[in-house]
Every structure is written in C-alpha cells, then in structure tokens.
C-alpha cells in the first residue's frame, strides 16, 4: 500500500488530504491557514478526531514541515518513507500543460511563469511544490491543472474576437477553470446514468463561491464559462462574472476610489457578485435568509444569480444541441435546493422536471422525475481524489 498526499495550496493557505492508494481511503485531512501571518493555524482531522494548533508559519516550506510533523506526531504515519507521491492542484496551466505531469525544475519554472493568469493561486502552489521537493526530495510530485480538461476546446470557442496578435504574442484566450471538478462529476454522472461517458452530452454546473459551467460532449470539454481568468462567466459569490468591458474605463473616470484598471479588477473579483449586489453577504445561505425576510436587496441579488445560471445552461444546451443531463456540484450546487428548483423550473420548456421529494438538502443522485426529458443530477465533487488518482497513474 502507498500513501499519497493531495495538496491545494493558496497564497496564505494549504489544504491537504492523505490517501491510502490504490484503495482510495482517506487517512487524514487538514488545513493550514494564515501562512506568512501572525498566529497561523493548522488543523488535522483523522479517525473521527480533530486537532488544531496555533503557531507562526512564515512560509510554505514551514507549512509543509508542520504538515509532515503532524502526520508523525499524531501517528498517522510511522515515517516519511511511507509517502510515495504528492499531487498539487495548479489553477493555471496555460497552453503548456494539457494533462497532469510529473514536476521537475523545468515544469516548476513554467508554473511560476504562468502566475499572471492566476496570481492568487499559482505562486502559492509553486511554493508548495518547492517545499515538498526540499523536504521529501525522493518523492514524485505531480501537478494537476484546473485548465487541462478544457484544452479540448476548439479555437473558435477559446479565442476572443479581438486582434489576433493578442493571442499570437500574449496568449490571450479562454482557459477555463475547475476542470478537475468538471471531469470528476462527468465521470460519476456516466456511472449514475448507466451509460458510457463517450455517448453522453452533459452540462456540469460547479456552483460554489466561484461558479463555472461546462458543456461536456462525449467526455470532453467543448465550452466553459470561465475565461482568460476565473472572473468570467455567471455572477458568483464575490465576482461579477461577465460585464461590458467599457464599464472599466468609465468607473476609473468617475469613481475617485478606483485609480486604475487593477483597482476595478480587484473590485470585480472581491467586492461584487452576491455580496456586492445584496450588501449582506456573499454566502447563499445568508441571501436565502434575506429572501425569507423579504429584504429587497437579497431578492435582487438572488434573482440576478438565478438569471445568469439559466442563461449559461441555455447557451450550452444550444452548443451541445440538447443534453442528457444537467449536473450540479460544489457547495451551492450540492446543497442549494432552492437555487436548483428555481433554475430548473424556469427552464421547463426543455422538458426538465424536478422531483420535490429528492430535491432536498443532503440528497445526492438523480433529482428529476422519471419522465424528465433531461435528467438533473446532484453529485458531490472530489478534486482531491482526482489528484490522488493522477499521482498513482504517473508515479
């Protein structure tokens, strides 16, 4: 039996899961927060227990050392030699990487070069890889890219209608994101439907704080809502999603708090979406509480959110010329039964019907009626497991 760690490193955090492979058993999981800040926190969950400690963690190398020491200290492993593979989630792979790959210095340099496409994610991920290479130099590291699944898109889909020199010289194009999640739930949907994936047309809706929707034709991504960066697509928790680009210079010229394009992009990423419109919260649970209280700002934010989700699903029904199933996943997708109800019922012309006894909190599987022309599924995502599987395949 081998042990593989799946890593999701951000600029100031490191989330991990330890698997026994090939059995795919989760032995432990944890989260290290506030890396580089005072009073960092490391939490480990294992055997039904949870333990946290507060300690200053100045960088990702120290974070990895804390993680590994916790595994030994809590007797989750007996020695580092039990760890045979490490998988790292990388948000942006650009055009360099169309599949998961074993990481050496050359690959790591390319991941760092692509930081402009994911400035909040790639630098932290690269730092995590370097830390593991330093502390466990003989263990295989594998990079698993959010963008890789979307590299099957055609050029007429991923190119923007702007002068070609911006693609030729600067590689400005649609890259997408959440690819590992979309790929996983599509595979699980095929199992649930009892049909080969290469015979299915699916629309997978990853709806969490970040939202992306993908058109999956016979197991491949043919279009996806996130674009050059994860800012594009439907309205999200704190992101605006698609807007008229002429708004950017207009706001710079008319708002004293916005000095340049970077300020506007920061606002569109962090202060918009559900949170910006409602001025209550970016969390759908709080928005739904506002609906119950008939708060007009919560009602507006909710209606805008439903409107944007419907529009992207509708687009992809056109792209695929119909679909076998709509698949909801991620935090809101898995738990937001009211959101699912309002999206699907507003698209009844397409022959989708929900079973109200199944479209409830905590239910996973098929939530449509037997006579629904397009099936509606709820499938929990598991990006960490996909990462562990790719490590097992490549090491």
UniProtKB/TrEMBL annotation:
Residues under site feature: Transition state stabilizer: 178, 239
Gene Ontology terms: biological process: acetate metabolic process; acetyl-CoA biosynthetic process
Residues that hold substrate according to the record: 89
Annotated catalytic residues: 146
Catalysed reactions listed for this entry: acetate + ATP = acetyl phosphate + ADP
Amino acids binding ATP: 15, 206-210, 283-285, 331-335
Enzyme class of the recorded protein, top EC level: transferase
Pathway where it operates: Metabolic intermediate biosynthesis; acetyl-CoA biosynthesis; acetyl-CoA from acetate: step 1/2
Co-factor(s): Mg(2+); Mn(2+)
Binding site for Mg(2+): 8, 383
UniProt keywords, alphabetically: ATP-binding, Cytoplasm, Kinase, Magnesium, Metal-binding, Nucleotide-binding, Transferase
Gene3D superfamilies documented for this protein: 3.30.420.40
PROSITE patterns noted in UniProt: ACETATE_KINASE_1, ACETATE_KINASE_2
CC terms in the record's Gene Ontology section: cytoplasm
Subcellular localization: Cytoplasm
Keyword Heme: no
MF terms in GO: acetate kinase activity; ATP binding; magnesium ion binding
UniProt cross-references to InterPro entries, sorted A to Z: Ac/propionate_kinase, Aliphatic_acid_kin_short-chain, Aliphatic_acid_kinase_CS, ATPase_NBD
Cofactor notes: Mg(2+). Can also accept Mn(2+).
PANTHER family assigned to the protein according to its UniProt record, in alphabetical order: ACETATE KINASE, ACETATE KINASE-RELATED
Subunit annotation: Homodimer.
Family listed: Belongs to the acetokinase family.
Function: Catalyzes the formation of acetyl phosphate from acetate and ATP. Can also catalyze the reverse reaction.
Name of the protein in its database record: Acetate kinase
Organism: Streptococcus urinalis 2285-97
């Amino acid at each position: 039996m081998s042990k593989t760690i799946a890593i999701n490193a951000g600029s100031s955090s490191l989330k991990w899961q330890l698997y026994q492979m090939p059995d795919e058993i989760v032995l432990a999981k944890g989260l290290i927060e506030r890396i580089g800040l005072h009073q960092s926190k490391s939490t480990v969950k294992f055997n039904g227990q949870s333990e946290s400690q507060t300690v200053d963690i100045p960088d990702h190398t120290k974070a990895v050392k804390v993680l590994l020491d916790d595994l030994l200290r809590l007797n989750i492993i007996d020695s580092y030699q039990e760890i045979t593979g490490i998988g790292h989630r990388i948000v942006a792979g650009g055009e360099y990487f169309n599949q998961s790959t074993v990481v050496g210095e050359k690959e790591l340099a390319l991941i760092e070069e692509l930081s402009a496409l994911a400035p909040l994610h790639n630098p932290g991920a690269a730092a995590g890889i370097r830390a593991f290479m330093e502390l466990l130099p003989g263990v295989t590291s594998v990079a698993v890219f959010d963008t890789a699944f979307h590299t099957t898109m055609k050029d007429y889909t991923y190119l923007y209608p702007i002068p070609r020199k911006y693609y030729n010289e600067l590689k400005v194009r649609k890259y997408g994101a959440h690819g590992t999640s979309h790929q996983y739930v599509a595979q699980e949907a095929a199992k649930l439907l009892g049909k080969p994936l290469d015979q299915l047309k699916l629309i997978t809706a990853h709806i969490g704080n970040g939202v992306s929707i993908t058109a999956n034709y016979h197991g491949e991504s043919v279009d996806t809502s996130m674009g050059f960066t994860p800012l594009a697509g439907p309205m999200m928790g704190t992101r605006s999603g698609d807007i008229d680009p002429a708004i950017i210079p207009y706001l710079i010229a008319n708002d004293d708090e916005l000095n340049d394009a970077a300020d506007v992009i920061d606002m569109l990423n962090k202060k918009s979406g559900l949170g910006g419109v409602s001025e209550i919260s970016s969390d759908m649970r709080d928005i739904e509480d506002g609906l119950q209280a008939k708060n007009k700002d919560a009602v507006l934010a909710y209606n805008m959110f439903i409107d944007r989700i419907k529009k992207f699903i509708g687009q992809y029904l056109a792209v695929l010329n119909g679909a076998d199933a709509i698949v909801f996943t991620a935090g809101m997708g898995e738990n937001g039964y009211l959101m699912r109800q309002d999206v699907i019922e507003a698209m009844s012309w397409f022959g989708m019907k929900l079973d109200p006894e199944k479209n409830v909190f905590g239910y996973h599987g098929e939530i449509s009626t037997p006579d629904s022309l397009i099936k509606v599924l709820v499938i929990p995502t598991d990006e960490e497991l996909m990462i562990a599987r790719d490590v097992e395949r490549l090491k």
